[in-house]
Amino acid sequence: MKLERLSSAATISRYDRVIAVGTELIQTKVQDAISNARKREIHVLHRGPADAVQRMLNAVEPSSYLRPHRHADPPKSESLVLLRGSLGFVTFLEDGTPDTFIHLHPEKMLAVDCREGVWHTVVAFEPSVVFEVKNGPHAPATDKEFAPWAPAEGSIAAQAYLSRLKDLILGENERN
To answer: Is the pTM of this model over 0.85?
Structure first.
């Protein structure tokens, strides 16, 4: 399978009719995420940003901080299916209070579906890959609204916030 680099954080496979996602592609994305400065990497499966349904593999390393965000303009729902690893999915109330904690793990929970306009993030506990689906088209300027109450990516506070979220997820997981 030939991968074409779209950006420093994404690749795409150009195919005519069908593509199979196997362990080799997943391992390639894990390796790409390790070498990526943001410690995550996307592999696009749809044809391009104009497609009505956006499908991709998203590889996330444990040190990667994904700032909480929502898809509100236009409203978009999002689904994640765990293919490898272990990660947490967190939703937040409007004021930034963590609300829902879901630990995606191969022996317990495999997928999550999030309605449009809900503040959320993911945190990886180990090198992880998810199959992600959301509505298109993709417009980078409006795709995500970042939470004003969460630290910016790359800020000094981001790693401490990431650690706090991981502790909250694991604590909630132990209670359930």
So the answer is: yes
Closest CA to 39 of 29, 48, 47: 29
What is the per-residue DSSP string for 107-124?
A: TTB-EEEE-TT-EEEEEE
As given in the structure block, the two tokens for residue 151 are 């630290």
What ranges make up the beta strands (E) of 61-141?
69-70, 78-92, 98-104, 111-114, 119-135
Are the C-beta atoms of 55 and 18 separated by less than 8 Å?
Answer: no
Domain annotation for the chain: domains and CATH numbers: 3-175 (2.60.120.10)
Task: Tell me what the mean pLDDT of segment 123-145 comes to.
Answer: 91
Rounded to whole angstroms, how far apart are CA atoms 83 and 57?
A: 9
User: Quick check: 88 and 162 in contact, CB under 8 A?
Assistant: no
